[in-house]
Amino acid sequence: MFKGFYTVASGMIAQQRKTEIITNNMANANTPGFKADQSTIRSFPDMLLSARGMTNIPTENGLNQSTSDQIGSLNAGVYLQETLANYMQGTIYETNLSTDFALINGAMPIDEESGKPGTIFFRLEHPEGGEAYTRNGNFTLDGQGYLVNGQGLYVLSNEGERIQLQNEDFQLSQDGNILVNGGQVATLGISFSANPDVLQKLDNGLFRTVDGAELPTAFGEDGVTFALQQSYLEGSNVDSAQSMTDLLTSYRAFEANQKVLQAYDRSMEKAVNEIGKV
């Protein structure tokens, strides 16, 4: 009976966490460059139950032999194993702002370990040192003319330097070159991750490597092709309709576990109040 409490409780906790992930995805359905989170629920390893007993051996000394009869397996519930981001390309839409950039994936090599394609990111200077990465190209110029993102992090060039411009009258070519009056002033920094599942997802659409190491540049990377589009942004890749369906499914699963928990509770109440009186 008590094992049933733990099994049902683990299911409720897993569904609650899944609901939180889905609602966060839905809240960012209109956030540029947002990558939806996907959760994986797994069951704990089953436990094999057996009944132990004693068998009397009819001998002069009256020996007893222990016995073990298998009853069957017992499921110990489920847990939320991991949460991974979905790096599928979002919809590209026009903004008419020269400081908005959209990254458009081309060919991406398949990682042998994960079996998934790699992806590319804009390079940002992280305030704690090293680099951060994002797909959100909603940039602007700060008071000193540096290209920054919405949180004020500096956008880096391919050489790892901050990009300073006099005004918003500049052009970005499809291959990442920033041009002012026809002359190249910098190449926008684009990094490539062969296995983005190992990246650490931060707030505000940022990613970092777990050990703080910098990702390699995407320019010249074997098998990697991409394009940049000025005055466009990549939208969120959240599927609102599917997310709503998943949210209702998760809620119903939580509700079903809750009813089972209430049934267990009523059974325990009878065991204490009625059977205990006998």
How would you sum up this structure, described in words?
It is a single chain. 22% of the residues lie in helices and 32% in strands. It is of the alpha+beta class and 278 residues long. It folds into two domains: 2-82 and 239-277, no CATH class; 92-234, no CATH class. The protein has a five-stranded antiparallel β-sheet with strand order 14-7-8-16-15, with no helix packed on it. A three-stranded antiparallel β-sheet has the order 11-12-13, with no helix packed on it. A hairpin with a 5-residue loop joins strand 9 and strand 10. The longest helix has 34 residues, at 240-273. The mean pLDDT is 88.
Name its key features.
278 residues; alpha+beta; three-stranded antiparallel β-sheet; 2 helices; elongated; cilium; flagellum; FlgE/F/G-like
Shape: elongated
| Secondary-structure class | alpha+beta
Compute the gyration radius: what is it? Answer: 28 Å
The biggest sheet, with number of strands, parallel, antiparallel or mixed sense and barrel status, is: 5 strands, antiparallel
- Domain module count: 2
Could you give the order of the helices and strands? HEEEEEEEEEEEEEEEEEEH
Number of helices: 2
The percentage of residues in β strands lies in 25-35%
Helix content: 10-25%
Name the assembly state: single chain
Can you list the strand order of the major beta sheet?
Answer: 14-7-8-16-15
| Cα-to-Cα separation, first versus last residue | 20 Å
Number of strands: 18
On the 0 to 100 scale, the average pLDDT is: 88
The stretches of 5 or more residues where confidence is low (pLDDT under 50) are none
Domain Flagellar basal body rod protein N-terminal: 5-35
Organism: Lysinibacillus antri
Family: Belongs to the flagella basal body rod proteins family.
Subcellular location: Bacterial flagellum basal body
